[in-house]
Q: What sequence folds into this?
């Protein structure tokens, strides 16, 4: 592996900027997902709508930033003989840590730190999103239970509820022979 000084590697600054943009967007998304969970716990449809719209915008920004980062990595690979040879041999795309290892000093340390921060943020975001999913499923189950109770209360014969599910109530029969 070749190590290079920061002076000769213009891509290091570009990669730092790309990672910083991803970190900023993920931090904002983490905040919005927290607001989403709060909206679910308060069963606030307006806040849910705002949260979903903000998440959609941030996910678009993250996708754009990630596409820019991937394009930069492709340029880095193309400009480096060792990386290009490994790419032609079918090696996986190098990770940030592998690219940082090619540098010395401050540039290396900054990239390693940014990569670590981004990974940590993504893990926290995934955990928070799992929590939101559980809260949403819980709210949906609660709402379904309410709908079943209302359906039973207002069912004329008391025999079927929502979705034609049998409620177990006795059926009303009519003697049509007389």
A:
């Amino acid at each position: 592996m070749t190590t290079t000084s920061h002076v000769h590697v213009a891509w290091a600054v570009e990669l730092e900027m790309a990672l910083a943009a991803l970190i900023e967007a993920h931090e904002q998304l983490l905040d919005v997902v927290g607001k989403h969970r709060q909206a679910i716990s308060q069963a606030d449809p307006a806040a849910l709508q705002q949260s979903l719209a903000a998440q959609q915008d941030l996910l678009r920004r993250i996708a754009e930033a990630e596409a820019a980062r991937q394009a930069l990595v492709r340029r880095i690979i193309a400009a480096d003989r060792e990386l290009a040879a490994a790419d032609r041999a079918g090696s996986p795309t190098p990770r940030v840590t592998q690219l940082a290892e090619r540098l010395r000093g401050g540039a290396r340390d900054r990239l390693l730190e940014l990569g670590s921060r981004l990974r940590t943020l993504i893990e926290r975001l995934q955990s928070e999103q799992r929590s939101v999913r559980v809260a949403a499923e819980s709210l949906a189950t609660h709402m379904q239970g309410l709908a079943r109770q209302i359906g039973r209360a207002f069912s004329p014969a008391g025999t079927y509820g929502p979705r034609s599910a049998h409620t177990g109530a006795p059926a009303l029969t009519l003697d049509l022979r007389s």
Residues 105-154 form the longest helix (50 residues). The chain has one domain: 6-160.
